[in-house]
Amino acid sequence: MLKSFQETAKLIEAGKVLHIAGTEALLKKLPKGKWAGGSTEYFMAKDGGKISNELLFVTEFPYEDFSIKTYSRAEIENVAADAFDNGFSIVIIPFDSTVHKEYAQKADGFKDMFMKNIVGWISGVNLGIPGQTPIAVCGTDASAYNDKAVVLHLNVPSDKAVNVNIINIFAQDESSPIITFAEEGFSVAKCFVNGKETVLADYIAQNKIDTKLPLVGDYAGNGVNISFKAIENGVVNFYAPVFNHIQYRIAKSIANYEKEFHSKLADFKETEAAFSCNCILNFLYGELEGKKIEAFAGPITFGEIAYQLVNQTLVYVTVD
Question: Is the entire prediction scored with pTM above 0.85?
């Protein structure tokens, strides 16, 4: 729930195990305790989307067995190996940090990655306020980092089952040609369109592609989004890396974000999510400020983690 600074501080002082999202300034003032946090001013609350530099989104967990660890770029490969066998881990990574890029490009090869329940988000800033720094915070010593991940590892009782889920309102447009890449990473100049080498920026311009729509990669029948960030000097920049072994298509157009979300979420109204987050691009492009997304509340993020980094996606965890 969204809470004031004073309410949040009282929960920390009461010894609660917490995940906290809020501004850099508020997070750095919170007392030490059993919490991990990251920076954002965008939230999906029970009564609708909000932007606030005065409130914090606080998720309380009832689990006594937990650990909070920090990971540098060289250490992040251990994140799943450190996770509990029956639990879940919330990974918080500052946007555009070296550990962000390392995780995005290599997470699928980390030890035990798909054997544990790994979720999380990329922390960010208010896009309208210059001079801010995305951070992740380790509450046990109140250390804030712009170059390390902070992870809250939670151990769930053995009679409970954890599930990691994503809700993606996008799907591949089957009429779009297949796009593949020889280059990998967050930035590319060229691609192959139905096997023909093409300058991607030219293809986008010539075909009037709406870059609010992501590329959707085919991961063994599951659609994973790669969102467009910017096109600069003939280079296309993404919010997540593209890979050379994945086939992509442009997503199908969506007329109304809010309607599409409600259609997708119709079967989830009774879902009790232990944790959830949703993408800043969904928030902005869907104009979700003040609009309710049933069943799911949490931080609005600059990238989502469901094992790997995903974009324009709602990620949630259930414990049943």
Answer: yes
Q: How confident is the model at residue 255 (pLDDT cuts 50, 70, 90)?
A: confident
Residue 40 sits in the same domain as residue 185: no
Q: What angle do CA 210, 215, 219 make, to 5 degrees?
A: 160
Amino acid letter at 185? G
Task: Fill in the amino acid letter for 243.
Answer: F
273, 95 Cβ separation under 8 angstroms? no
Among 220, 250, 280, which residue terminates a domain? 250
Q: Can you tell me whether residue 91 is helix, strand or coil?
A: strand
**Exposed / middle / buried, residue 270 (Cβ in 10 Å: 0-12, 13-18, 19+):** exposed
Burial of 130 (0-12, 13-18, 19+ CB in 10 A): exposed
- Determine the Cα–Cα distance for residues 255 and 223; give it in Å rounded to an integer: 19
Closest listed residue to residue 305, CA positions, set 26, 68, 102, 46: 102
Here the tokens at position 187 are: 């930035």
Q: What residues make up the domain containing 28?
A: 2-166+259-319
Identify which of 251, 231, 248, 253 has the alpha carbon closest to the alpha carbon of residue 192: 248
